Amino acid sequence: MTSTPVTTTATTAAAETASAADAAAGAADGTALHRPVTDWFDEHARDLPWRRPEAGAWGVMVSEFMLQQTPVSRVLPVYEQWLARWPRPADLASEAPGEAVRAWGRLGYPRRALRLHAAASAIQERHGGDVPREHGQLLALPGVGEYTAAAVASFAYGQRHAVLDTNVRRVFARAVAGRQFPPNATTAAERKLARQLLPEDEELAARWAAATMELGALLCTARAPECGRCPIAAQCAWRQAGSPAHAGPPRRTQTYAGTDRQVRGKLLAVLREAVSPVPQQALDAVWDEPVQRARALDGLVSDGLVEPLGGGRYRLPLT
């Protein structure tokens, strides 16, 4: 007697999602999308400092680290201050990691500051202070993943790479796959689709990468897409399907108030403002719940963001 294999709902849903994306990738006529999107970008792109020629590859890299999970409005003032203080990787590498954490301010996810400092040190040691051009060399830098390597290679050096951030994934999900939102985590099917949609011409590919990202940030937004202003609304598979509501797993939402992240931020704020080591009592004053406060402080020490000293004192890391 042959038994019938049991397939879970999650497995079936995942397989259907992958199949749908694969089908979309095979059917996608990228050439019909390239020109309207890049023409729209040429007319409507925001004048951001990291897009200017004087920003260079280092300016692009700094912006990509800062923009991870952080809106442009919050990044702009910190970015300007950062580049004024550390206009080259060598300038940052010559300072203590704690100074990077201090200058990071309230951007959130401060481990990015340590990773950017480590990347600057590696650039100085391995590449003579110049951000490397090769994708593989970028990917080998500390704190640089697939997305950041592709973004720097594309935006700084005009190379042909699929740059797949949350905004781009949402544009492709709607315009090509006919879904309101992409999966919670980037899938192999999405990467395949992005590669198939990538223009063959290197210069056009770099503009396409920036343009699709801007389209997702300004028009094809998560909460209120402005389809009436979208340059590819008539070709959008999601609109053609009647703009169906999201039918996949619940989208992840982030909370902050009362979390360990909030406590970590309060503790770091005290250390950033201090010019000398901070006693335990000063840290205890920022959060009433002792167990959560201790857990948050231990996490900061474990992540290398805080250095414990003798006598119950703490400071930002010097090495």
UniProtKB/TrEMBL annotation:
Transcription regulation recorded as keyword: no
Keywords: 4Fe-4S, DNA damage, DNA repair, Glycosidase, Hydrolase, Iron, Iron-sulfur, Metal-binding
Domain HhH-GPD: start-end pairs: 66-218
Gene3D superfamilies linked: Helix-hairpin-Helix base-excision DNA repair enzymes (C-terminal) (1.10.1670.10), Hypothetical protein, domain 2 (1.10.340.30)
Catalytic activity: Hydrolyzes free adenine bases from 7,8-dihydro-8-oxoguanine:adenine mismatched double-stranded DNA, leaving an apurinic site
Pfam families per the UniProt record, alphabetical: EndIII_4Fe-2S, HHH, HhH-GPD
Source superkingdom: Bacteria
PROSITE patterns found in the cross-reference section: ENDONUCLEASE_III_2
Protein family: Belongs to the Nth/MutY family.
EC identifiers of the protein: 3.2.2.31
Name recorded for this polypeptide: Adenine DNA glycosylase
The keyword Hydrolase appears for this protein: yes
